[in-house]
Amino acid sequence: MRIWGITDTGLVRRENQDAYATAVIADCTIAVVCDGMGGTNGGHTASTIAVNTLLQELQTAITPSMDWPHVKSAVLDGISQANLAIRARASEDESLSRMGTTLVCAVCRDAESMVFNIGDSRCYLISDDGIRQITRDHSVVENMVERGDITPAQARRHPRRNLITRALGPDAEVEADSFRVTWKQGDFLLLCTDGLVNTVTDQEMLFEVMHGSDLDSCLDRLMAAAKKQGAPDNVTVVLLQNL
Questions:
Q1: DSSP character for 139?
Q2: How far is CA 41 from CA 44, 45, 79, 90, in A?
Q3: How confident is the model over 77-85, as a mean pLDDT?
Q4: C-alpha distance from residue 187 to each of 38, 191, 242 (Å)
Q5: What pTM, to 2 d.p., does this model score?
Q6: What is the three-class DSSP state of 224?
Q7: Which CATH architecture does the domain made up of 2-136+166-241 adopt?
């Protein structure tokens, strides 16, 4: 498996509140991307805690050849522990009381993967067949799209597009969605924060990944495209290729 990652503050924000990490644990390759919220210090703190806590939990929870139901349980338990860790840190410092973070995580092994998300950070499957969004945003505008009030294109520019309905941190308990994904050799999983989604179209992602000149510079090109559109938010992208 090949993995690339990139994160950038963007052109407007003063601090990068995103966080990401990748790891190989037992026979699984794992990627986590988080987009923090709750003020300059709070957003960075929440996203960092979430990434670090989840990977720490999975280091001991995942074992070689573990079946997928147990992998799913381990990740959901790790996400719950991350939520508790964020809340515990917030209770120690009043300035962090409103902090929280989105989370998207992929656990990959051979031809199968499991994807988990909370909030509006996304995972896409990119292949010869095109690009498909795996996750469903937990957001106000996604609910509006599902009701037919606005189109997906309108959602990208809607003034309420940053309002999410689910996150790690604000509530004592949080529910992550999970998805089982089959991917073949040569396929990609792309995990990203909304800083990419709101500036780069799905078709632009597809083109750069599948038809760009050099895979090793693919994420640099996506970042340049986001900045060309003003990059008003932090931008983080992780790309995994099944070999």
A1: B
A2: 6, 6, 21, 11
A3: 98
A4: 35, 13, 6
A5: 0.96
A6: helix
A7: 4-Layer Sandwich (3.60)
